[in-house]
């Protein structure tokens, strides 16, 4: 497949009002794309669109709830009305539920899967017909390092949803590649975003949740890595090389890998929820 040139294209982004979504919007626009930024909070989407316009680009902002199919249709219609086409679709919205596996109610699973996974199914139904008809374009799905490696026994719905996003993305690549459409799966590790707004805690949360010992990167860096991957038609975006090394270790001997990870676990439980976590927050924006 030929490389992708952003110049003159139109990109739509969900969860684009902050973090990785905002950074991707600015990176895509910096390469010549016109962008339609969507977010659950409309003023955030419009603020990012204004940033693009102030830098000399073209952009529109719209409020979108990714749990509603009609909102995806409105996002498509906005892109077609404002710019006449759609070339890049970035599915970036996400939320996270935390708690011991035995404490997570159905509502935690349902919310996380609805936002993180089913939103991409809704996006596919709305946007893939456009890309297939024109025989070109690119789909970007934001997953997580937790979708490649089972970080987070204290956030099982998130881990399950992101593993599903990785699998869905790989299958889509096999389906769309022969039809001239690329697929990129973004699997960030530690990224500086407003993730605390997207966390709901059930029961008690560990003071030391399972997480990779990887360096923190900026959302802007992830935006640039994503734009480069789309340009080069690469599937996987990792934010730190250590993830690749751990994937190799895991593939070589899964039992040995799991035993090593079990040995490192700190299972201390604290009495109170860490202050950075906000109960009841359900904002589907950039929780990767």
Overview of the molecule:
By secondary structure, the chain is of the alpha/beta class. It has a single domain (10-264), classed as NAD(P)-binding Rossmann-like Domain (Rossmann fold, 3-Layer(aba) Sandwich), CATH 3.40.50.720. 44% of the residues lie in helices and 16% in strands. It has helices at 19-30, 42-54, 69-83, 106-134, 156-176, 219-232, 241-252, 254-264; strands at 10-13, 34-39, 59-63, 88-91, 96-98, 137-142, 181-187, 191-192, 199-201, 217-218, 236-238. It has a seven-stranded parallel sheet, sandwiched between helices. A two-stranded parallel ribbon has the order 5-9. A two-stranded parallel ribbon has the order 8-10. Helix 1 packs parallel to helix 2 (42-54). The relative contact order is 0.17. The model is unreliable at 267-288 (pLDDT under 50). This is Short-chain dehydrogenase.
Structural class: alpha/beta
CATH topology, anyone? Rossmann fold
The overall strand count is 11
What fraction of residues sit in β-strands? 15-25%
User: What are the secondary-structure elements, in order, as H or E?
Assistant: EHEHEHEEHEHEEEEHEHH
Physical arrangement of strands within the biggest beta sheet: 3-2-1-4-6-7-11
Q: In the CATH hierarchy, what is the class?
A: Alpha Beta
Rounded Rg: 18 Å
Sheet having the most strands: 7 strands, parallel
Uncertain residue ranges: 267-288
* Oligomeric state of this protein: single chain
CATH architecture: 3-Layer(aba) Sandwich
Number of helices: 8
Helix content: 40-55%
State the end-to-end CA separation.
Answer: 28 Å
Mean pLDDT: 88
